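Below is a typical protein record.
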Amino acid sequence: MSYITMALLATLFTYFVTALGAATVFFFRTMNRKVLDLMLGFAAGVMIAASFFSLLEPAIDLADTLEMNAWLTATIGFALGGFFVIAADVFLSRTEFIKSQPPTMKRSILLASSVTLHNIPEGLAVGVAFGSVALGVEGATLTGAIMLAFGIAMQNFPEGVCVSMPLYRDGFSRRKSFLIGQASGIVEPIAGVLGVVFVMTMRNALPLALSFSAGAMIAVACAELLPEASKENKLLASIGVVVGFSLMMALDVALG
């Protein structure tokens, strides 16, 4: 199986989990908040660990191999990825279309748009991870790429819930709420394939791409997942982060 196919299957899986989360609107009016917060914390821990062990560390090692300025390349890429997510949030919140909506509708549209935008760098991160394995980058492992996809999938389930449930609460039908919720994840397979093709054809750009993905992942975890998870259940969110980070680190180091 080619690494492009692997990246496609991995990101189709992450999309499927988003759709699965959105489908809960057909069965429940609300979702158990404690379960969601634990999942969000766990996903944040996995993503933070993956950002270093599967993305940033291989980026630095590869930059050294390519005789690039490793610390500068990693810093620039990481900052660009983080600021991309931050700028996307700011842009969405200030558009005239968003401002003109009623408060409840504004919140729902903003959430759906934000989740969709965040899924782009997440899909890219998975694609870049598989592309790094294909190129034999030191520190990049198939286990790490698969676990990265798994971590993203874990946080995609509550994201699907958090998009479809508010839409249903604000007056959308169950069917329309589900369709919008699952659509927020469809960008991941597209971004995943683009990511793996990009890095396999432009090896010299790989350190920057890996660092960019790491910065975007950290920004999503810190700006979206952790604040949302710790609103009501800070203890559960913290437990989830520790378990998620520990599991990702152990698997990546032991099996890498």
